[in-house]
Amino acid sequence: MRVMAQVAMVMNLDKCIGCHTCSVTCKQTWTNRTGMEYVWFNNVETRPGQGYPRRWQDQERWRGGWRLNRRGALTLRAGSRLARMASIFANPVLPGIKDYYEPWTYDYRNLVNAPLGDDYPVAAPRSLITGRPMAIEWSANWDDDLGGSVEHKAADPLLGGAGARAREIAEKVRFTFEETFMFYLPRICEHCLNPSCVASCPSGAIYKREEDGIVLVDQDRCRGWRQCVTACPYKKVYFNHRTGKAEKCTFCYPRVEVGLPTVCSETCVGRLRYLGVMLYDAERVAAAASVPDDQGLYEAQLGVFLDPQDPAVRAAAERDGIPRDWIEAALRSPVHALISRYRVALPLHPEFRTLPMVWYVPPLSPVVEALTETGFDGEDAGNLFGAIDALRIPVEYLAGLFTAGDPGPVRASLDKLAAMRSHMRAVNLGDAGGGETSQAARAVGMSGREVEEMYRLLALAKYEERYVIPTAAIGEAHGLEESVVQGCSLDAEGGPGMGGDVHAAGPFGEDSGRRRLPLVSLESFHVLRRRQTADDEGAVSAASPTSGPYRSDTAGDDRAER
Amino acid sequence: MRILLWGALPYVAFALLVSGLVWRHRYDRFGWTTRSSEIYESRLLRLASPVFHYGILFVLAGHLLGLFVPASWTDAIGVRERAYNLLSLIGGTLAGALAIAGIALLVYRRRTNAPVLLATTRNDKAMYVLLVGSIALGMYAKLSHASFGHGYDYRGTIAVWARSLFRLDPRTDLMAGAPVAFQVHAVVGMVLIAAVPYTRLVHMFSAPLPYFFRPYLVYRSRGPLQERPQPRGWERIGA
Ligand code: SF4
Ligand code: SF4
């Protein structure tokens, strides 16, 4: 047993209202730069729907993740090392900008500069890729709230599959489209235990951090081969088309290092994201990812996780150098509770075999709503259990998302959520005492106390209980103020700061070399501010990316004038 | 002039190459990339890029073979001059044709595709001129002095000169006697070699060979947290 720790996330889909706050705050923090206009480290998609990039789940087409080869060994679906290196000069399955969407802005200047006339001036859309006027045809969430879905729904890979069952589900979903069963799926990088992006990187630039399991791209080592973009089945590595490097969700590691939740979690309006430590056995990862049966992967991954309640696990963790406060955090981890103790959270697409570490509590609301609409009491346990059975569509669709099609775990999870509703209603109406094991609780094999604890975690969701994040390391506490983070973590290797060098000083002394002479500067806060506050356009273009958004002065690498 | 071109220029080019690589590695590792434009346009690229790259790799192999494998070695394994000439002519021309076809398509793509053109820097344009120039000149030199019976025997002159460079005793007289077409090609080629580290061509030095020998998963430690100097553009904003 080799114990490793990872900061993982669980999202409770029942509470997601699809407000996109998480996406917007994430974008403002990490990707509001040239080259990254089309990139959403966090995106929220409506289900059923195509997602972003379009049809990303369809691995027949995008070739992400792992598969088992004839000998039953794990290999990248994108091809063997040799095959992929032979085709390195043009990645055969790279999503193009149109598969995400062509980013645009509006020509606002026209609103004030247009000559006097009879018509109102308009701000016409302009492509951020070509700078030319463009017609907006698609975006990261064009089919939000099922907009246009009657035309697009065949494009949901979960509904478009072959086979009688897929067709049957598709037919039913189509049938009930007017009554609309839908929910939202917020997605970030899964920070997988068996990350295919890492495995695919020819330069060895992507790595998983030993301390907290966060998967990062070393910007100084990335050479822009784009293999990771293909290999990630969740399509959560993006190509910065300005710098020519891959970038991905960083799990807000500068924040997590000092015990702050990620930006998407912190700003989530539904307060549905949970962050906590998972302990796992690194030696079991490969075996779990190569379980022959797709539907066995969920259980296999559960088997990789270790129970911090177990003294033997704690001893092993200490032996393997996990700091004590991390072990304590693991004991209180809400993520561990939802995944392993209550077993209500499920992994997204375990059949990709990357062992994802952002899990989801499936939404019960579509079921409750459907039930209430038919005139039944949507919170009555008997009705609900029956309905979960009867409403096969949501369950099977959810199983396609979370358990490689096995409805069992989805049903079990939904049953527990239903039991929780009924139990709490019974308690609130005085039909059952607090802590008593009600009928509903018994039906799902939980005690009343357990149900109430789960209720506290899922429904009340106190800030301190949602986020149990140990800081980077004990003994380094003096450096752990946020102020230090701004100075150091951003520019650590793999960080979006991309400036610093954690290696020892160069041969010419402490300050020699690239630390003092970062010759490539990206759009910085200052450039942005100058552009926003400059009075005349000349000053703007002198300072703004239009004249040199990515300048590598040294290489004489000025961009062509527009 | 003779000394300058055939005695000094090669060393200058080599020095620029090496120092450029070191400098780029130290100061601009972040800018060291293929700068792929596949995300903008992939249909043409998927055809043109492999054609060009494989072509140019064969061309490179041909140059290494021609310049650094003495005729006596090939004689020793029983390859006679005539056979070698044919191999060099046909193989070299095929490889060159591949490279030219590939780069022609690539340049066409760069010109006609708006996003790709926009992403083209002046540096890129200069690089393209050099690259296309040296390939075209090389093809011209080769074909204008070739016949199936007996081509220009560069292995007696240019190759000897090239090898003499490494003995630090350049045989400039040999090069001065070579046909002008070869001379021009050699000069442009040397300039190209010198320019490699300063252009996007630098990505040729990151051929990912270690990938074949490492385990799939890479783990790295965060290392101790510590204060580091702030790079330009990331100064504190006092917020
Ligand atoms: S989800 Fe994240 S960690 Fe997993 S393969 Fe994709 S980019 Fe890598
Ligand atoms: S902020 Fe929260 S509620 Fe809003 S879309 Fe994101 S995950 Fe859903």
Automatic annotation (TrEMBL), chain A:
Catalytic activity, EC: 1.7.99.4
Major localization class: other
Top-level EC class as recorded in UniProt: oxidoreductase
Keyword Disulfide bond among record annotations: no
Entry keyword set: 4Fe-4S, Electron transport, Iron, Iron-sulfur, Metal-binding, Oxidoreductase, Repeat, Transport
Domain 4Fe-4S ferredoxin-type: 7-36, 180-211, 213-242
Cofactor annotation: [3Fe-4S] cluster; [4Fe-4S] cluster
A Pfam family per the record: Nitr_red_bet_C
Subcellular location(s) per record: Cell envelope
Superkingdom of origin: Bacteria
Region Disordered: start-end pairs: 530-562
MF GO annotations: oxidoreductase activity
InterPro entries: 4Fe4S_Fe-S-bd, Nitr_red_bet_C, NO3_Rdtase_bsu
SUPFAM superfamilies: 4Fe-4S ferredoxins (SSF54862)
Database matches in CDD domains: NarH_beta-like
Keyword Repressor in record: no
NCBIfam families in alphabetical order: narH
UniProt cross-references to PANTHER family, sorted A to Z: NITRATE REDUCTASE BETA SUBUNIT (PTHR43518), RESPIRATORY NITRATE REDUCTASE 1 BETA CHAIN (PTHR43518:SF1)
Record's protein name: Nitrate reductase subunit beta
From TrEMBL, chain B:
UniProt KW Translocase keyword: no
Transmembrane intervals: 6-23, 44-66, 86-108, 128-148, 174-196
Keywords, ordered alphabetically: Cell membrane, Electron transport, Heme, Iron, Membrane, Metal-binding, Nitrate assimilation, Oxidoreductase, Transmembrane, Transmembrane helix, Transport
Subcellular compartments: Cell membrane
Pfam short name (any one): Nitrate_red_gam
Topological relation to the membrane, as annotated: Multi-pass membrane protein
GO molecular function ontology, one term from the record: oxidoreductase activity
Enzyme class: oxidoreductase
Documented EC number(s): 1.7.99.4
Main location, first listed in the record: membrane
Keyword Ion transport: no
Top-rank lineage group of the source organism: Bacteria
UniProt protein name: Respiratory nitrate reductase subunit gamma
Organism: Actinacidiphila epipremni
